[in-house]
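Tokens as discussed.
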């Protein structure tokens, strides 16, 4: 059971799904980059607003 679970015989290569079309690959790169920038900017933005907060 474990041998068949960890074998890759039933899987196709990742690029075969979209035949390594250059425009589609760059679309994935661009969208992943935008998502990464959004995730990394959230803590920076929160720290900025926390530092600007007025203390009572």
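Sequence:
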């Amino acid at each position: 059971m474990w041998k068949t679970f960890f074998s890759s015989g039933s899987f196709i290569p990742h690029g075969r799904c979209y035949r390594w079309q250059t425009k589609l690959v760059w679309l994935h790169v661009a969208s992943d980059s935008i998502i990464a920038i959004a995730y990394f900017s959230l803590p920076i933005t929160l720290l900025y607003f926390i530092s600007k907060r007025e203390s009572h």
